[in-house]
Amino acid sequence: MTEQTEQTEQTEPAAGPEEPEEQPPAPATPHTAASAVRPATPGTASGTGTAPGITAGIGIAPGTRTAAAGTRASSAAGTRTGSAPGTGTDTAPARSAGTAAPGRAAPGAATSTGKGTSTGTATPVTPARARPLGEVRWWPRSFADRLTAPLPGVRAFARLAREGAIRPGTDGLRGIPQLPYAPGSPPRVDVDTVAVTWAGHASWVIRIGGLTVLTDPVWSRKILGTPARITPVGVRWEDLPPVDAVVISHNHFDHVDAPTLRRLPHTTPLFVPAGLARWFRRRRFTTVTELDWWEAAELGGPGGGVRFDFVPAHHWSKRTLLDTCRSLWGGWVLRDRNGQRVYFAGDTGYGHWFHEIGRRHPGIDLALLPIGAYAPRWWLRDVHADPEEAVQACQDLGARRMAPMHWATFVLSAEPVLEPLTRVRAAWEKAGRPREELWDLPVGASRVLPPGARP
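The chain above was modelled as a monomer; its predicted structure follows.
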């Protein structure tokens, strides 16, 4: 979502009795319930807390900037018992418009072959031990130390107010009738076949390992703080196969939609970022597995099941006035018994994490990457990739194919509604990638990984 753009986003109504909100957090040492083992935060420094925000969409007080972790390097795989994520305090200075975020390279600066494989010799990484499903865990009260760029301060808000560029003008909206839309049902596939169907925005129906997995399911016509959908949902709810699992990237309203989630059985296995399980358990979901970056869990199925790896993203989290960065954010790598991998990025800006994800998860067959909600660039570049950066991210990942998402559904920012598609196609061609490897699907369309997709 253009979470920084949604200045008018409302606080979510309570679904039944809610626990009282905790006070604005200070960074704390993480720990887990019982004998749980938690991996150390990759090279992080303790971030400064954020004050209650101006609106639910921002979460910082005027003049406040959250500590950036832009210079953090990823750590090697492994775990530590009861270790703190860091000991230093890092307060980032305000950046002028057009200045790159700390630790963030321009898209052209990343090293890649241009054919979807990163250069250099990859260091083998031992996969993380799968954690138990539904495990109850304790987390730090803030994940602000995971930010890779500071959240905007009063000067940025003042500039946005002056410029007023948070929605496209009349000319930018004229392309709505031309948005690609081809509603349909997910294809029938066998347990060894991977297929994806784009329902719109960041909602996908992934058939993998004999399971049906939904990503960030939003079937509502409207979400809090945004205009109504400009394209209908591409897959009718009644046309979905039985849903075996749901993955959530972060807690923003365009990725966690309470009315949609109420349609699911309470026994549906949910895989969510660290710190978000309580929200779902309040709504009576019984199997909620929350993970930190580089952790994994497994869910059995007729095709041998699926492994769910939670990986970093360049983003943030907020849902109410008092919970800025109180839960984590990230993407997911889904892998079946045959080694077929689908990467779902969720919401993310461009940055160093893509190389590391590709190193730890080599041979990604399909990357579902966001290409929309990026303008004005000075305001959104740290948390939303533009089309050219999405293509570069695909290169950094070493992914064989890319399917664009996070566009053509909600008007969340100032770019013309058709611009993301034209720009991603041009960037893909400029990168020298085969046209058939760009799965620029209409909303509602499906694609199946070809037989023998794995080498």
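Residues 419-430 form the longest helix (12 residues).
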